[in-house]
Amino acid sequence: MVKKRIVSQTSYVDPSKAGQTQAAGTREVYQGTLEAQWTCSSCGRTGIPGRLKHCPSCNNPKDASEAYEAPTGKAGYLTPDELKAMGVDPTQHLSDEECGYCGAKLQPGTQKCPNCGAALGDVGYTTHVCPSCGRESNAEKCPACGAATKEKLIAHREAEPPPAKPVPAWLRWLPPFLQKPQVLIPLLIVLAMACFCVISGIIAGMPRTEAVTVTDIAWERSIAVQEYQYVERGGWSLPAEADLVSQETRIYSYNQIQAGTEQSCGYEQSCDTTSVYDHTERTCYDDGTCDEYDVYRDEQTCSDEYVCNDVPVYEDVPIYQTWYNYNVWEWVDLEPIVVRGSDIDIYWPETRLGETQNERARTESCIVTFTTEKGNSYTYRPPCSELDQYPRGSRWNIKRNVDEILEIQPQG
């Protein structure tokens, strides 16, 4: 039996509820369940109550072409007893039974078609059970043996799910949640994509050998030089070996202290959000009933209020210390002496240092550019002592990965 089969939805505004409010965030409030109505297509009678499955005028049974409609005008809500008598569960709204032989629409839970006498096997919702023969129905007396029926302990139950399909043997070793196709298939797709990416990365990172030619050479040698100079410096302390030039009192920092308070006034906005009645919505189902909900919208109401507050006032108080200007002898870095070249004849720059100068450090850097027949270029930084092994035009075989050259061998 179909669950929650909606046949129509309508809405209207109830003037008596205009301005009605609920807590902020309220979207809809269930009001009750109404009895729907239908029109007989055989004789044209209108307004037939949803609980009647035969036309009161011509006695023709309701069929699938005769849809339920919302009741016209103001209608009262059905009581739990009235819903039970109709075989309707308002938490599920299971559709009417439909006879597979004559097509007649019957009350939910009917087991035998009163129109053609056919037996109906699909009972979606029943409220009573016979203690004598076990027959389930919606009647106070058992239609099979005539004994008084008892109300079932669970009046509103879901239809039992179909039996689960057996799990293939090759899947039984997996955890239960992975045996479901809707979980397993996306997981297998993700794993396949991950494996493809890993394999592609491994293949791309595998070392490869290529024939190359030296097309460019560049080298640079640098000597850092210092000079002992008598320089002027300044600071908050005077070094023991320095010669004082001058001193003065300066502001070293500030201390922030509270000097008092002052009144700060202005407008502050205060907002309150509530849900306000917007309209009433009726949703009709294929069981002869309509649910009615009041629908709300959030509205924000804001107001400005003039307020005054005492706020602290702070003052920056300076802290003074002595600042010293002095001269001191110290080593000063000079511009380094640099020489560059683009061949294998590499040498150090000449240096002529004075008595107050000295050499601090020497650095060197050598770069060889290899180019393949396809025009791809790779740089290699050999020790500068080996640069003479790579003259322009010499040919080599290199083994490399994506990031670096791993091995270099001369072509035989």
Element layout with pairings:
Layout: E1 6-12, E2 21-22, E3 28-35, E4 37-38, E5 48-49, H1 80-86, E6 97-98, E7 105-106, E8 128-129, E9 136-137, E10 150-151, H2 181-205, E11 208-235, E12 243-285, E13 289-333, E14 337-341, E15 357-372, E16 377-380, E17 395-400, E18 405-410
Antiparallel strand pairs: 1-12, 2-12, 3-13, 4-5, 6-7, 8-9, 8-10, 11-13, 11-14, 11-15, 11-17, 12-13, 15-16, 17-18
- Poorly predicted runs of 5 or more residues: 154-161
Give the overall pLDDT as a whole number.
85
Computed Rg: 47 Å
Strand content: 35-45%
Please, how many helices?
Answer: 2
The profile of the biggest β sheet is:
11 strands, antiparallel
Overall geometry = elongated
- Proportion of residues in helical segments: under 10%
Tell me the number of strands: 18
Terminal CA distance reads: 85 Å
Helices and strands, in N-to-C order? Answer: EEEEEHEEEEEHEEEEEEEE
Return the structural class. mainly beta
Summarize the model shown.
By secondary structure, the protein is mainly beta. Helices cover 8% and strands 45% of the residues.
Describe the fold and architecture.
Among the domains are: 171-204; 212-224 and 334-410, no CATH class; 228-276 and 301-332, no CATH class. It has helices at 80-86, 181-205, and strands at residues 6-12, 21-22, 28-35, 37-38, 48-49, 97-98, 105-106, 128-129, 136-137, 150-151, 208-235, 243-285, 289-333, 337-341, 357-372, 377-380, 395-400, 405-410. It is mainly beta and 412 residues long. Strands 1, 2, 3, 11, 12, 13, 14, 15, 16, 17 and 18 form an 11-stranded antiparallel β-sheet that branches. Helix content is 8%, strand content 45%. It is built from 2 helices and 18 strands. A hairpin with a 3-residue loop joins strand 12 (243-285) and strand 13 (289-333). The model is unreliable at 154-161 (pLDDT under 50).
